[in-house]
Amino acid sequence: MAVIFERGLGVAHDLPRAARLNARSAEAGSPGGLFRSGADYEYGVGVTYDLARAYEKYDASANAGYATATYSLGQIYRDGFGRKKNTGRANELFAKSLKLMRQYADAGNSAAMYRLGLHHEYGSGTPKNLETALEWYRRAYRAGNIRAAQAIGWALENGRGVKKDQKRACAWYKLAAKHQRPSARNNLG
């Protein structure tokens, strides 16, 4: 429900209401609600920016087995964002997230396939491998993940794991933009 207000899908765009709904879901113990509430605090979406609360929500979500929260904690430790930089802890969290994402991807979850692409593109919990990242993005797209179309366009535009091809990159960006990916429209100029 929160995402409807967050994105203004058929209702007025209302970030504070979305944040309240995420908080209610978090209070009920939902791992996804904890993660989304953590993201609200990390980015100051509908609530006051608060890295300590973001970390607390991500940590509770990750402890409940939510792979995306585990990945986000890894980023926090890798970058030293609101916490002391700890590469060892970051790699441990990325490896745990990678294992969970692989289970979800094998079950057909397109978001997990997309996240596996990110793991391989950036070397998070696994050696950096742009060709493998691109293959995961393609699998995610075939499974219905539109964000993956934008990632494929980016790879083609920049020659990441594939030969540069501006024409094909533009086609992928147009596909993503057609499906309401505003940032894909930015890639088109």
Overall strand count: 0
Taking the alpha carbons of the first and last residues, their distance comes to 32 Å
C-alpha geometry: globular
Q: Give the C-alpha Rg.
A: 17 Å
Secondary structural class: mainly alpha
Catalogue the unreliable spans: none
Strand content: under 5%
| Order of helical and strand elements | HHHHHHHHHHH
- What share of residues is helical? over 70%
Mean pLDDT: 89
Total of DSSP H or I helical runs spanning 4+ residues: 11
Question: What characterizes the major β-sheet?
Answer: none
Briefly summarize what is shown.
The protein is mainly alpha-helical and 189 residues long. It is 72% helix and 0% strand.
Describe what this molecule looks like in 3D.
- This protein is mainly α and 189 residues long.
- Helices cover 72% and strands 0% of the residues.
- The protein contains 11 helices and no strands.
Helix-strand blueprint:
Blueprint: H1 2-7, H2 15-27, H3 31-43, H4 51-63, H5 67-79, H6 87-106, H7 110-122, H8 130-142, H9 146-158, H10 166-178, H11 182-188
Helix pairs in contact: 2-3, 3-4, 4-5, 5-6, 6-7, 7-8, 8-9, 9-10, 10-11
